[in-house]
């Protein structure tokens, strides 16, 4: 078993999609064609825009599986139906090639497309509202001059009328989305912290996944000045639970150093945990390409966020489970399942192998109240792709095809209560609910092999 931690910034989260980090730009109107600023073809500006687009992980949501980059078509399931990311290539008929800078800027920072309709809040424009004018010009230059145009029509939403009407989105936007206003660095005395705050709060839109939402689906906080809810962990997205990025000693990153966070963003793996779910895309497409200075700034800013739960106690390792397994005692519920399926990678002591198979003891994702991520990775497995600085790919196999709901529940409870972990327990019915929502399939057999029953 390969347990991982979701420290996701993208991971498909936003107001109604609860999990999209995409700007769902709508089709152009006939009067939208105007000329763009003269300097948008400048090579340096385009290169800067490409860097910003990577930092914002735009490609992850605006590219469908096996599709062309930024041509859209990626499906996001929402409580009222499916929506699809749109074509943001510079194709003049189906993309944004005829958009003026003002139209592009209003869509990104205000959530309003050229015809006046409000974008679905799967576009994290509440975060992008604080982007600087310079960065907006660079992004516009890149998407209009640095991206290959793709002629691909946008897919209409799969939402029935009257829920498909756009005007309620305008009300939501006026109530909960801030007006565009350049980031105020004066709140942070250290320029490195200010840069980190700008990236985390704005372009990185980390809060879109890692901040809880109200019943009306807006983020409870858009920055650290709004209170301790900011980055304190989000609701399940696509079967993964975004963890707290605050200083909580067990359920957050309180036990992590700044260097740990830098390593995680660059490679997706540390001595504490490894990326899973949408966060693997963030590392693969975005964070590994960011400059050392920017990744350090983000990590330093995150480390300034205090714990959202002052009563939470630090993790302390407990050798009881390890001693039992080493001496052949697998009588505890779930212990035999763990011994037979997990010890080769995560070891009897739950400490794994640093940089290869993450530790389970003290892993933040095993400490919280919601075990959805643990169940999901057990059922479906996970893969952590190699990066520039950590080129090896490691895979957690799926066990859902051969373990029953009761067995998955038992081993989930075992890892969440062993080695000093204090996570809540689950039942077989909890596993059954997750199984209905995630892909579970037996692995392909080699030619000529026969699966025994």
Distance between the termini: 22 Å
The backbone outline, from C-alpha atoms, is: globular
Q: Kindly state the mean pLDDT as a whole number? A: 88
Report on the biggest sheet: 2 strands, antiparallel
Strand order of the largest sheet: 1-2
The DSSP helix count reads 17
The helix/strand series, from N terminus to C terminus, equals: HHEEHHHHHHHHHHHHHEEHH
Overall number of strands:
4
Number of domains: 3
Describe this structure as you would to a colleague.
Heme c 2 binds at residues 206, 209-210. Residues 1-32 form the signal peptide. This is Cytochrome c, mono-and diheme variants. InterPro entries: Cyt_c-like_dom, Cyt_c-like_dom_sf, Cyt_C_IC, Cytochrome_c-type_DH, Membr-bd_ADH_cyt_c. This protein is mainly alpha-helical and 453 residues long. It has three domains: 42-176; 185-304, Cytochrome Bc1 Complex, Chain D, domain 2; 319-436, Cytochrome c-like domain (Cytochrome Bc1 Complex, Chain D, domain 2). The protein contains 17 helices and four strands. Strands 1-2 form a two-stranded antiparallel ribbon. It has a two-stranded antiparallel ribbon with strand order 3-4. The two termini are 22 Å apart. Mean pLDDT is 88; it is low at 1-36.
Itemize the secondary structure elements and their pairings.
Elements: H1 43-55, H2 58-61, E1 75-78, E2 81-84, H3 101-110, H4 125-128, H5 133-145, H6 167-176, H7 191-203, H8 207-210, H9 258-267, H10 278-285, H11 292-302, H12 320-326, H13 335-341, H14 343-346, H15 372-380, E3 382-384, E4 394-396, H16 405-417, H17 428-435
Antiparallel strand pairs: 1-2, 3-4
Signal peptide: 1-32
Organism: Paraburkholderia fungorum
InterPro entries: Cyt_c-like_dom (IPR009056), Cyt_c-like_dom_sf (IPR036909), Cyt_C_IC (IPR008168), Cytochrome_c-type_DH (IPR051459), Membr-bd_ADH_cyt_c (IPR014353)
């Amino acid at each position: 078993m390969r347990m991982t931690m979701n420290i996701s910034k993208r991971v498909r989260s936003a107001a109604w999609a609860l999990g999209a980090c995409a700007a769902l730009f709508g089709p152009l109107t006939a009067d939208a064609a105007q000329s763009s600023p003269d300097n948008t073809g400048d090579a340096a500006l385009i290169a800067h825009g490409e860097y910003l687009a990577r930092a914002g992980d735009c490609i992850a949501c605006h590219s469908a599986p096996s599709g062309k980059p930024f041509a859209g078509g990626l499906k996001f399931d929402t409580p009222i139906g499916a929506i699809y990311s749109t074509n943001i290539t510079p194709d003049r008929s189906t993309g944004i090639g005829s958009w003026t800078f003002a139209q592009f800027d209003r869509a990104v920072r205000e959530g309003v497309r050229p015809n006046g309709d409000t974008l679905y809040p799967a576009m994290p424009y509440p975060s992008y509202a604080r982007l600087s004018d310079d960065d907006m010009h660079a992004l516009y230059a890149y998407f209009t001059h640095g991206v290959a145009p793709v002629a691909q029509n946008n897919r209409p939403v799969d939402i029935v009328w009257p829920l498909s009407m756009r005007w309620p989105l305008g009300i939501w936007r006026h109530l909960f989305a801030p007006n565009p206003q350049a980031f105020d660095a004066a709140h942070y005395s250290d320029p490195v912290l200010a840069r980190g705050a700008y990236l985390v709060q704005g372009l990185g839109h980390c809060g879109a996944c890692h901040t809880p939402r109200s019943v009306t689906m807006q983020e409870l906080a858009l920055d650290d000045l709004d209170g301790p809810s900011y980055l304190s962990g989000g609701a399940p997205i696509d079967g993964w639970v975004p963890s707290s990025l605050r200083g909580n000693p067990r359920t957050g990153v309180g036990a992590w150093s700044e260097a740990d966070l830098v390593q995680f963003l660059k490679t997706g793996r540390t001595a504490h945990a490894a990326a899973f779910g949408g966060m693997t895309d963030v590392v693969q497409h975005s964070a590994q390409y960011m400059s050392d200075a920017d990744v350090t700034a983000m990590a330093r800013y995150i480390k300034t966020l205090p714990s959202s739960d002052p009563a939470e106690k630090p993790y302390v390792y407990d050798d009881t489970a390890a001693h039992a397994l080493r001496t052949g005692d697998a009588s505890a519920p779930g212990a035999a399942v763990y011994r037979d399926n997990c010890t080769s990678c995560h070891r009897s002591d739950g400490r794994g192998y640093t940089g290869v198979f993450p530790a389970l003891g003290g892993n933040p994702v095993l400490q919280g109240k919601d075990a959805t991520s643990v169940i999901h990775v057990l059922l479906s497995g996970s893969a952590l792709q190699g990066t520039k600085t950590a080129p090896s790919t490691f895979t957690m196999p799926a066990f859902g095809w051969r373990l029953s709901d009761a067995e998955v529940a038992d081993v989930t409870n075992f890892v969440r209560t062993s080695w000093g972990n204090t996570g809540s327990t689950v039942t077989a019915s909890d596993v059954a609910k997750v199984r209905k929502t995630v892909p579970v399939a037996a692995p392909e057999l080699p030619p000529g092999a026969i699966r025994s029953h």
